[in-house]
Amino acid sequence: MDRVTERLFKDWVVNSSLDSLDESESFEYFVNFIVLSRQHEQQFSVDDYSCGADGTIGVDGFAISVNGELIPGMTELEDALNGKSAFDSTITLIQAKRTGGFNLGDLSVFADTAVALLCDDEPPHPGLAEAHRMLQVLFDHSPRFRSNPVCKLFYVTTGAWKEQIAFQRKIKDTQERLESTNLISRADFHVWGAKQIQDSWRSIDSATEVTFQFDQKTTLPDMSGIREAYIGVLSASEFVKLIVDEDGDIRKALFFDNVRDFQGDNDVNLDIGRTLLSGEASHFCVLNNGVTTVAGDLKVTGNRFTLRDFQIVNGCQTSHILHRFRDRLEGVYVPFRLIVSEDDDVTNSITKATNKQSQVTAENLLALAEVQKRIEAYFSSYGENDAHRIYYERRSKQWAGSAQVRGTWRVITLRNLMQSFSSLYLRIPHTAARYYGDLRRGPVRMYLRTRITLHITTAQHTPFVKWTISSAVER
Prior knowledge:
- The protein is about 40% helix and about 15% strand.
- The protein has helices at about 5-15, 25-40, 75-80, 105-120, 130-140, 165-180, 195-205, 235-245, 265-275, 285, 315-325, 345-355, 370-380, 415-425, 430, 435-440, 445-455, 465-475, and strands at about 60-65, 70, 90-95, 150-155, 185-190, 210-215, 215-220, 230-235, 290-300, 305-315, 335-340, 390, 410.
- The strands form three sheets. The protein has a six-stranded mixed β-sheet. Strands 2-1-3-4-5 form a five-stranded mixed β-sheet, with helices on both faces.
- It holds the Pfam family AIPR.
């Protein structure tokens, strides 16, 4: 293992309080954390997705996501699939090796185990029995698939990856075997070496940065709280650069400040798709309401714009449909507004205003509530040098790249607060530990509206926030 990778690995182990594990197991956790963090913006416990500790051969990490949300176990999967609406899903399989080279035999064992896990009637190893049962439950709900699941395989070592014919043949053969089963829509096989580990770590430990070409634009007048602002039409192919990661997948974290997630194939989204596939595709810029993006930082060189720390606050539906048809965007332009501001109040007002044009419930705007700022201020009242200091993540990846925050256990999200509140005050820990959607839809929702403000206001008289902090530290 090279010095840079080793330093990243050891720092992560210490900051994650996993230094009691042996190096082989902790490296598997490290790789699983990086791979899943690249695909999902939510906080998660890497222990829920690591399966190599019990001597499991061939696979060290396994995860299922439903509609972009990681599912830690069977109970949560059953909850996530409870309903009648269509859904998307992804299956991720990971193998991590500390060795400095690439071994075709090890890669073949991983590939064959992955195929057996997905296709055989019995799990290929007792340690994968739970994963096999989860897959069976997932495929039992196949009538509700928007499309068959995507399968992502990651074989990771600390060596220098160089494409070799024998490896490429095995990778291609594995993809063809999986896709020929008609169980999945696509098989993506990724092979990582030390460079890919380092690059992936930096991408999840820093704010998103993207460069694109913005030719058709007008600069807006000076406004209080706004550093720069532009309005115009952006080539759809250039816009897609903003929303996809290195693997071509859509960056879910960009829509955290958007009040609604992707709504699937509803009438509006189907119409957007039909327009892109029809002879009216060139009219897209006058038929679509467009996209509004708010960025914390911008560098301009001519017509080349480099955005850093940005969010798409309006246009989630448009973004997802453009991503779906990204190979059919020639001659298509998108109405595009870009606002550069570091003022959260300005950002929130833009988000609310741009979403008034369509029906948005008060529940959709929970992320923008004043109480969230008050919660954040309470967490911030603890000194930075406090050994038990933790941080509230009001906005997605708010603390990414922050020098003082090391270790995911230090970051507390709204999800964590709702789970703590449900367990302690509503006395329903069985619900709090289950799928997060139950908390959003269930009894906590109305109770939180009326009570959480009181608890934050009188924090010195109630254990709610202090209990949340202390329980997080104890974890």
